[in-house]
Amino acid sequence: MATWLRLRSCRAPRLPPAPAGLGLRPRGSVPAAPALASAQPGRSAGGLAGLSAALLRTDGFVGGRWLPAAAAFPVHDPASGAELGLVADCGVPETRAAVRAAYEAFCSWRGVSAKERSSLLRKWYDLMIQNKDDLAKIITAESGKPLKEAQGEVVYSALFLEWFSEEARRIYGDVIYTPTRDRRALVLKQPLGVAAVITPWNFPSAMITRKVGAALAAGCTVVVKPAEHTPFSALALAEVKAGFLLSREPDLLANQAGIPPGVYNVIPCSRKKAKEVGEVLCTDPLVSKISFTGSTATGKVLLHHAAGSVKRVSMELGGHAPFIVFDSANVDQAVAGAMASKFRNSGQTCVCSNRFLVQRGIHDSFVKKFAEAIKTNLHVGNGFEERTTQGPLIDEKAVEKVETHVSDAVSKGATVVTGGKRHQLGKNFFEPTLLSNVTGDMLCAHEETFGPLAPVIKFDTEEEAVAIANATDVGLAGYFYSQDPAQIWRVAEQLEVGMVGVNEGLISSVECPFGGVKQSGLGREGSKYGIDEYLELKYVCFGGL
Fold it and tell me: What range(s) does the Aldehyde dehydrogenase domain occupy (predicted)?
């Protein structure tokens, strides 16, 4: 039987029964989570008040049914520290049940026509857009990001479903001319099988659809393990996928939404159980693909586990993006790009600028205008407040890392131009901070901060800037500002990163490939290349013709 399973054949012998004791509940039979903050009076800007109760789910989602667990873990609002709700703490039994459900669904989903898969993904996109305001409120509540940013994320997230709904119909193979007249050669592209999708908290919706959209378009099925900080967004996507918001008849609605049970599964879990759940996903013989976004350290652990069964892997890992400003740059444009690149989601993005390398001739002007822009345009507050542009960091551990980087830099001679300390609003808030006189021996110069800290390093020559930018084990994104065409070509080619922004601080889009080099990961997401991560090539030779 092991051989059959290793081949992922849908003609394998009968699979073992689902683990005993799992209380799968039909859709619609589970009440909405009563403990969530929508019921809390006085929450800033209304909090989750008025949110559709159907979107607030606390159980896992396996085989089209809601799956409780023996234990639950709390999810907190990073702004206030208030408990948003208790979510099913799925472990090994629930994970294996989800994998089994996904595998059984794959046996039929792989045969669904590309046109039909395209149509179903488009319906899912439409449902997300119809419910974008509620989905954004969930993101703000559990991640803390400003509501306007959360609304932008939901649209961005939905666009991946739209994009891959179109790409589903463009999975083409090849015809190869052979050296002999009696043969014909074809190359087919076929779905890999069950994909385990492990996602981070900083983009709790978009990181799911960027992976899941490609997987489903290719004909794969998925098991999603969301970050413990932000499980509600993943569960809300399951609810939207099931189509509950179109009517009050859940069975009818699942049919209207169209995506079959078992194609999309969600297993939330606490940090305590994350290791065992991740190990099951990486070692289960029914899983063919691992797609992970997170830290480089965790990615290495998952790669180790996946190596035992030689699974296909995609890894989008850490970054340490340089932002270079050359003397020829337009300073105002460079400052605008720096603001966009650095402070989105309070600096908690893997592609945000982490080091600002500024040429000596333009250095003082850039630092002055950058500081003015920070003081004028950034407003720290609860994400539900309309004025807020900078929400809290995800937890106190994240704040402590920013504090450590600032104090280390100052102790070694850096100057705090603005910010530099925790904000009075609470333990998870930190002031947007700009440091000058930063040198290479400081932690912030060679470690990813993942927070609202902008360290400025002065340089003299182009060669020096490129050397500093490349002096790291990671290479996800890089940015630079210049008006010299020859320099633009040289630097764009020399930067050791997977993505380059030239005179541009925001570079992500669904149409373009996302991914890095070095220890920033393997593979690409989004774009026409993203779907290839979930496809296997098969060469077929016809003889005797």
Answer: 70-540
Is 350 noted as a catalytic residue in this protein? yes
Q: Enumerate residues 6+ apart whose C-beta is below 8 A from 41.
A: none
Active-site residue among 220, 282, 350, 352?
A: 350
CA 170, CA 322: separation in Å to the nearest integer? 36
Q: Which helix (H) or strand (E) covers residue 359, if one does? A: strand 353-359
Asked whether the beta carbons of 268 and 226 are under 8 A apart, the reply is: yes
- Mark whether 316 is an active-site residue: yes
Nearest alpha-carbon partner for 44 in 388, 344, 349: 388
Domains of the chain: 57-317+523-538 (3.40.605.10), 321-509 (3.40.309.10)
452 Cβ partners below 8 Å, 6+ apart?
Answer: 342, 343, 346, 347, 390, 393, 402, 419, 430, 431, 432, 433
- Interatomic CA distance for residues 81 and 421, integer angstroms: 19
Of 229-243, 359-373, 442-456, the one with minimum mean pLDDT is: 229-243
> Which residue among the candidates 167, 239, 316, 448 is catalytic per the annotation?
316
pLDDT exceeds 70 at position 22: no
Q: What 3-state DSSP class applies to 540? A: strand
